DNA sequence: TATGAATGAGCCTTCATTCAT
DNA sequence: TATGAATGAAGGCTCATTCAT
């Protein structure tokens, strides 16, 4: 199912029934990812799409709308993978967690997708509705999935009874941040691959930094 | 190019010995924090500083340089607090860590400061030199301090022998990310104060999510 | 840089295949001739061309390039006339010389053309490449043509064996200078028409100022 | 006698009695010669004069006036040399002519002086009064001197009875033009020194290009 | 006399957007 | 559906000029 199906006209940006709009967004993703929003010119998008600048306006009423449509179209994809993976395995929260995180991290192997959070971060001030949309669609749903898993783990006695939201952020942030870092500082290639980082973080996140002995048999507790 | 070079050439962005440059930077911080880099006009900064646009150019040769000067002025402060706190207490890595993190987090109580990392992450593509500068000045030094602390903790047998860089990122990212989140999604006020988050994250980071029993003597549970 | 590059890239200053660029140059000639380079604003050119300022940039990437294109377009014409006339008649150097000089002088009946050498003179410091271009395209070629003619005349025993380059300059300079003078001091209208001046100069140049008797058979005087 | 004597306040640009104005003009000559009028900034002049920009305005009410004062101060010098040399020797017009021309050419060994005619020619449109001043002070007086000499030569039977004005221009233009050329095309060093050129031109100017036999007694030659 | 500080006006250039075809 | 052509509205930067000190 084409997200841009003519049956469901986009809320704001009107489009014709052909595939063109998707081609435009495909091109726009390239250019926005490479240059960011402000630095991207309609000319760039047009050239990347093999169209004239004016033609873009047949499908999207403004540059803002191209951007919004793009985010709406793409952001969901990343999130849905995660969502599915997480919900599948509530019976084994730990495995579900690991699988979801790995899938989610993999989806950013397309670096252009990794650019979207960065751009949203940058442009959130100028596109509050878009930021809201992103928060609702991606962040909240991801958190919800994670929280469910954490709660299940806690209920099963696998996890310590921590605040699930804090845990969710503690787990996701290092990975999310790594994605931003790689874009902002491409010159400073990180020492670990993304996959390795995922596992390292996951392990550290589960076991903690502190030496277990220190925590455990001080059996002398009050 | 710059005919109005000051008598005492600054490191890169020239300035006169008076207080004006600082006033300009103060104003610039306001405006950049509110609008980001690209969307900020020199006129805005000038107006905020109570000066004419041309006057700004008496102190800084370009918009870029205003931004760089601002980063150099402000980021260093944040970073140095951290640096000092961390280095102070190498004998007690755990306390040092906690103190450094808290101080560092506190420095962002001025939300305008929190805008700087956001802008750098967002605009790094357009300002590679700036991103490099930030990486060198802030990230690398912060990491170095943290790594020292972690290594000291590991050497003392307080911490598990993890990769210090990964640990550093695991600890800092949730906090850094929280700072970004609060700017991008001000509508979604987080449930915890920054201080609470710091402590929660710190605790979770140390002890890990997993139930200790599960990890240590499997099966001996009640 | 120039996103609006034309389908057929011009030699240096890009242009669209239509007549517009020529119209712009026509207008630019008017304005540059009247105001010089520095004092001419893009708005002036645009207005003279019946276009908006931005439209000029569809055809020329900068003010400099408008000027360069104008020079390239117009200067060559003047020079080529001269060139052809000179080369045509190597068998009769004297007639060829006279014809070439006259044609060349006539081409400046369009006073706007006369402005170009003036502007180049004025702006040579700011446009060294342009000055070079002018020197190569116009001065050197004109000199080459003249030198050929002079050498032919010398070889044929018509001219005294002088340094051809010196002769070329001795002949051209008074005319070139007259063109500059008429622009700089329009209030001081010269007593002779350009055509008359050409003939007078030519005659004086050939026969010299000195009384022939004085030089030849001294003592035969009355 | 200082031209800028306080006794005779300049017609438009007021000045204080010290030597400062002359120092400013000295500096201005450097900068105008190097950059032309439009491209010279008051800052440049100030820096060259070792003063602040504002101080310049104590002596000259505007950039235009600095330029005017400079031209008025300097242009006369060149001309007066010429003038004197020419008038001295009316009894021997040929020697007077040669001496005057040589002196005049020598005065441009200071290349900054050579810049003045160039700038006037270039900027005459923007400074009509100045152009008039130059014409009256320099051109007309130089021409008058030359014409006197020529007329004397003609009267004495040394020169052919040509139009003295035309002759004056025929003689001066190649030299004047050479001065302009050297500024505009410094890359194309001329093959002759200025002194050599003066003599060559002078010789050619006197004897003419044509073979004497051809002109005088056709066919009677050996 | 001298200047540091400041500015108004202006100019080149860019770019999202429009429209006739 | 598509585009070539055009533009209004900025925005960064410059510079001659002013003025309080």
Automatic annotation (TrEMBL), chains A, B, C, D:
It comes from the Bacteria. Gene3D superfamilies: Tetracycline Repressor, domain 2 (1.10.357.10). Keywords: DNA-binding, Transcription, Transcription regulation. GO terms for molecular function: DNA-binding transcription factor activity; transcription cis-regulatory region binding. Residues 41-60 bind DNA. This is Putative HTH-type transcriptional regulator YfiR. InterPro entries: Homeodomain-like_sf (IPR009057), HTH-type_TetR-like_transc_reg (IPR050109), HTH_TetR (IPR001647), Tet_transcr_reg_TetR-rel_C_sf (IPR036271), TetR_C_Proteobacteria (IPR039536). Residues 18-78 form the HTH tetR-type domain.
